[in-house]
Structures are given as structure tokens and as C-alpha cells.
Specification:
By secondary structure, the chain is of the alpha/beta class. The protein has a domain of about 180 residues: FAD/NAD(P)-binding domain (3-Layer(bba) Sandwich). The chain is built from 18 helices and 23 strands. The strands form six sheets. It has an eight-stranded mixed sheet. A five-stranded parallel sheet has the order 13-4-3-17-23, with helices on one face. It has a four-stranded mixed sheet with strand order 2-16-15-14, with no helix packed on it. The two termini are about 40 Å apart. Bound molecules: flavin-adenine dinucleotide. Flavin-adenine dinucleotide (FAD) binds next to helix 4, strand 7, strand 14, strand 18 and strand 22.
């Protein structure tokens, strides 16, 4: 995400104040609003920046398989090992709670996500995700059709946009836009439909061989592709930039044209107003705690094989096994001696801890750039007043704002009367200059004021109803699908979604993390993790 913010501001024709973000003060005083930083522990991750202790371990343990990293990929690997009857493994996770970017939490008694908040209904390429959903009782076959559990299917209305002082349905700006804008919406819809005819856009994409046209799309930015197509309408560009920031953590000037097209072509397409389906996000599963619902269920059966608060600092394959060193939160150095290991770590972490470093890990780490993200949970004592236009939705976005809007954790509640809730606000900082440093160095109160000022434009009653605001900082949240990230995979792709990602110069290791796919969604992480676990069982 390194499209300079200034450039995008010019592109969108927005006033500078809309892009300032941190530093804007809300109108009403916020001294009554408590909160702080929660979720990730940057200091623990940054232990890897120090020289790794060379002293003898405080404890040595033996296990058949070590899984390093307890995000969705690591948890999926553990599930696959269990399903195959392979119980002798240990999963080592840095944070106190497993789940990585898909963790949930409680805020003053209400559940909320700390990161990922939904899972689109999986298509047939995401076969292992479908199996998981069946196992969890979320999907079953009734009279020959797949039926999903209504309680967890996102209720209507799903999305709305605050545009021109009103809420409109859907996220594509439509209210009052001119004929020229509508014409460009139709041209972009036709381009997406053409892309769908020319090549397969699947989720997961990791195992799918790329067609030559997709490799050509991968070679340029989405912005360059839009320029070539003379798609320059300000509303279309805002929408596409928003979609890319929302899914990839970076805007159209950073991601590849493949990624920009894949966003639409792999799922619901793009529909101009009045043409085909409304431009809603399609069917999605969601929970108050977001995908923390899924990660908690993946972690539950692990029992004492799950070791949290462990910083894996060294993974060293040897002739007869693999040595994995981890620092526990109490400072003890643990040594795990295993036959094999599954590296379910972000690629930049894998590149720091693997000794020796496989060529592919070095190469992948050099190509990927990771986007920092901020997630803020805002606990309200009462629901917000409504403004003119579309009714409150699950996903609520403000046109032209620096953040990505918010989801309402109580949206799935069946209570007829709205009550206290938690709003989960998202902001991807990958396009912001010094975004990671800014994320980590900006004091909590400055984030609080900036977030409230941003949302206050649509919700003047927010400051008076806000009780607490907790900020989660994901410093290296997700890989951005920059140009070249797809093409690099060609020589490494396993033959099928059942085959693990392995490299000849690291025969005792299998790799799994959404970074390998080049963009971060549940289906990619889960499928890679499942393949690694199933193959090593
Ligand atoms: C803010 C945000 C919102 C998102 N929203 C969605 C969404 O709605 N839907 C969706 O499908 N996807 C979403 N994603 C993408 C999400 O990243 C993936 O769905 C998925 O959770 C990635 O899983 P993973 O296992 O590949 O990676 P990670 O979540 O990065 O897991 C890696 C794990 O390794 C651990 N780790 C790191 N270093 C070490 C170490 N040295 N030792 C031990 N452990 C270590 C980490 O703590 C983490 O638990 C979102 C991501 C973010 C950041």
C-alpha cells in the first residue's frame, strides 16, 4: 500500500481534512471515554529483532510435529493432523490467544472482532473450507441443496454508504451520480465479465495455475490498468480503491491489476446499477466476535498441544529432525525436537527464524510488502440515532474517509429493540507514508480522537454515547498483492489443493500462511494449512 495518500487525495478530489485522520479533534470532549491498546503484543514480536539467545535451553521436549504459528493456517494444519489420527504434535503461538488475524474478544460484556469479521460462502474450489463448515454445523444438505445456518448468515441490510450527507444502500456510489459515471460503471462491469470469460479467478487462488492474461495483469498496478481502459470516473475510482484497501490493505495504486480484477471476478462480479444483481457483497457468514468464532472452534480440541505465549525464534532442520526454539513469556527458552515442522508463520517472520533460509522463503519475503492495520472497537451505551436514508446495516462506510467504516457487532442480534453495541472500525495504513511507525507510535488518545472525528460526520451523537474505545494494532497485518506477487508463485505451486507447499532445500518443512497466496483471506490460509497438515500426518 504505498500509493502516497496525497496522490490519492488529488485523485479523488477530496478536501485535505478528510485524509488527515489522526490529529483531527472531534467537536465534543472525549475525556469520559476509556480504553487503550488491546490484542496484539508488538513488543513480543519484536523480540526477534534482538540477537536470539545462544544459551542452553531451559527445557527440551520431543514431539513428532511442531506447528509454528497459530493463525488460521496453523490451526487448520492442526485440525488436519488430528483428522488423520496424528495426535503427537505441538502448536506454538506467539500471542496469548490463538487465531492470529482472526481473533475475537469481549468489550464490556459484548463480543467483537479484533480483525477478520466474515467468511464469504465458500465456492467449490474451497472444498476444505466447505468441509469445516459442515463439521461445525454451519452448512448441511437439505433436499439436494446446501443450506447455511440462518443465524450466522449476514442479515439484511448488509451494506450502506454515507454519501453526500445521506445513507444509501450498497457501497457503490449511486445516489445522484451523473450519466458519465453510470456509463463507466457499465464499462467496468463489462471488463470484469470479459475477464471472467478469459480466465479462472478462484478462491483459494494459490493452487490455481495462472493464465497468461492473468500474469500480464499481475505485471502492472490496478491503477495503470484502469488508466489504460480510460476508466477515470472519480466515484468508480473511489469505490475500487475502497475495495482494494478493504480486502488487500492497499489501494489501486499499490495492488496489481490481477488483484483488482480478482476481487470481483472470483466472487460476485461487478454490477452497474440496474444491471443484474444489486452490488451487494454476496452471502457471508458473520458472528459478533467475527472470525474469532471460527478460530476458537478450531483451537478448542487442541488441549495441551496448544502452547501460547511462545515466540518461535529458530527453526533449524537437521539430518534426522527439526529443532525449534521458542521463548516463553516467563523468559524460559524451550527447545522442541521434532521429526518435522509446519511453518505457519508470516513469511517475513519465517525469513528471520529459519536456519538455513530456503531460497523460496528469501525470495517471497523480498517481493511481499505487508500492510499495517488498525482495528478499533467502540463500545456504545445505546444505539446511534439514525440519519436520513438507508437503514443501519452490518457494514457502514463513509465515502471519502480515511478509514474503511465500521461493522456493528449486534447486527445479527434477533432482539426487536436495538440496544448497547460495539462498532468495529477498520483502517488500513499500507498506503500511508510511514504507516507502520505511525500505527505503533501514535498515542491511544490521538487514535481515539481521530476515529471519533471521522465517524462523527455521519453520527453526531457518537461522542455522547461512546463509553470505551480499544485499539488493536496489527503491524504486519497482511501481504499486499503487489505487481509480481502472483507470477512469482508459478514455479512453487503444488499440483492441487491437497498437496502441501514444500521446497527441495527444506525437506522436513511444509509451509502454510496466507502470505504465500499473496493476499490474506480465510480460504487461502485454511487451504494451505490443511494441505500441510494432511500431508505430514
Ligand atoms: C484487520 C483485518 C481484517 C481482516 N478481515 C478478514 C475478513 O473479514 N475475512 C477474511 O477471510 N480475512 C480477513 N482478514 C485476513 C486474515 O488475515 C485471514 O483471514 C487469516 O486470518 C490469515 O491467517 P494466517 O494463519 O495465514 O495468518 P496470521 O493471522 O498472520 O497468523 C500467523 C500466526 O503466527 C503467529 N506468529 C507470528 N510470529 C510468531 C512467532 N515468532 N512465534 C510464534 N507464533 C508467531 C501470529 O501471532 C499469528 O497467530 C483480515 C485481516 C486483518 C488484519
Amino acid at each position: 500500500m504505498n500509493a502516497p495518500a496525497l496522490r490519492r487525495r488529488a485523485l479523488l478530489g477530496l478536501p485535505a481534512a478528510a485524509w488527515l485522520g489522526a490529529g483531527c479533534a472531534p467537536r465534543a470532549p472525549l475525556a469520559h471515554v476509556t480504553g487503550g491498546f488491546s490484542g496484539d503484543s508488538p513488543a513480543r514480536g519484536h523480540l526477534l529483532r534482538q540477537p536470539w539467545p545462544e544459551r542452553a535451553p531451559d527445557a527440551t521436549r520431543r514431539v513428532h510435529t511442531v506447528i509454528a504459528g497459530g493463525g488460521i493456517a496453523g490451526l487448520a494444519a492442526a485440525r488436519a493432523l488430528r483428522l488423520a489420527g496424528h495426535e503427537d504434535f505441538a502448536l506454538l503461538e506467539l500471542e496469548d490467544v490463538p487465531g492470529g488475524n482472526s481473533r475475537g474478544a469481549q468489550l464490556m460484556g459484548l463480543a467483537c472482532p479484533l480483525g477478520a469479521h466474515y467468511l464469504p460462502l465458500p465456492g467449490d474450489e474451497a472444498r476444505h473450507v466447505q468441509d469445516l463448515l459442515e463439521e461445525l454445523g454451519l452448512r448441511q444438505r437439505v433436499a439436494g441443496r446446501w443450506i447455511y445456518d440462518e443465524r450466522h448468515l449476514c442479515h439484511s441490510p448488509q451494506e450502506r454508504l454515507f454519501f453526500g450527507g445521506h445513507w444509501q444502500e450498497g457501497l457503490l456510489p449511486t445516489a445522484g451520480v451523473g450519466a458519465a459515471t453510470l456509463a463507466q460503471y457499465r464499462r467496468f462491469a463489462a471488463a470484469v465479465a470479459q475477464a471472467q470469460r478469459q480466465a479462472r479467478y478462484t478462491i483459494p487462488a494459490f493452487h490455481q495455475q495462472s493464465a497468461p492474461i492473468q500474469l500480464a495483469q499481475d505485471a502492472i498496478t490496478f491503477e495503470a490498468w484502469l488508466n489504460r481502459q480510460q476508466l477515470d470516473d472519480v466515484h468508480l475510482r473511489w469505490y475500487l480503491d475502497y475495495c482494494c484497501r478493504d480486502d488487500y490493505g492497499a489501494g489501486i495504486a499499490s495492488v496489481s491489476a490481477w488483484a483488482g480484477l480478482h476481487y470481483f471476478a472470483s466472487r460476485h462480479g461487478f454490477h452497474a446499477p440496474g444491471e443484474g444483481a444489486a452490488d451487494e457483497g454476496g452471502g457471508v457468514l458473520t458472528w459478533p466476535e467475527g472470525n474469532g468464532w471460527l478460530s476458537a472452534r478450531l483451537a478448542a480440541p487442541l488441549g495441551d498441544r496448544l502452547h501460547t505465549a511462545r515466540v518461535v525464534g529458530r527453526i533449524a532442520p537437521e539430518r534426522h529432525g527439526v529443532v525449534v526454539d521458542a521463548l516463553a513469556a516467563d523468559g524460559r527458552l524451550e527447545r522442541w525436537q521434532a521429526r518435522q515442522a509446519i511453518v505457519a508463520l508470516p513469511v517475513h517472520v519465517a525469513a528471520r527464524v529459519l536456519r538455513p533460509l530456503p531460497d523460496a522463503v528469501r525470495a517471497r519475503a523480498a517481493v511481499l510488502s505487508s500492510a499495517p492495520w488498525l482495528v478499533a472497537n467502540l463500545r456504545l451505551r445505546a444505539p446511534l440515532d439514525d440519519r436520513p436514508g438507508a437503514a443501519p446495516a452490518w457494514d457502514n462506510v463513509l465515502y471519502g474517509s480515511v478509514g474503511l467504516g465500521y461493522v456493528d457487532a449486534m447486527h445479527q442480534s434477533l432482539s426487536p429493540v436495538p440496544g448497547p453495541t460495539v462498532l468495529t472500525y477498520y483502517r488500513a495504513l499500507g498506503d500511508e507514508p510511514q504507516g507502520r511507525a505511525r500505527l505503533l507510535q501514535t498515542p491511544w488518545a490521538v487514535w481515539r480522537d481521530a476515529i471519533v472525528a471521522e465517524l462523527e460526520a455521519a453520527h453526531p451523537d457518537l461522542p455522547a454515547k461512546l463509553l470505551r474505545l480499544d485499539v488493536t494494532r496489527h503491524g504486519h497485518a497482511m501481504a499486499v498483492p503487489v505487481p509480481g506477487a502472483l507470477g512469482q508463485l508459478q514455479p512453487w505451486r503444488p499440483a492441487s489443493a491437497d498437496a502441501p507447499l514444500r521446497f527441495a532445500d527444506a525437506p522436513r518443512l511444509a509451509f502454510a500462511h496466507a502470505d504465500w497466496a499473496g493476499y490474506s483471506v480465510f480460504e487461502e490460509a485454511f487451504t494451505l494449512g490443511h494441505a500441510a497438515g494432511a500431508a505430514l500426518a
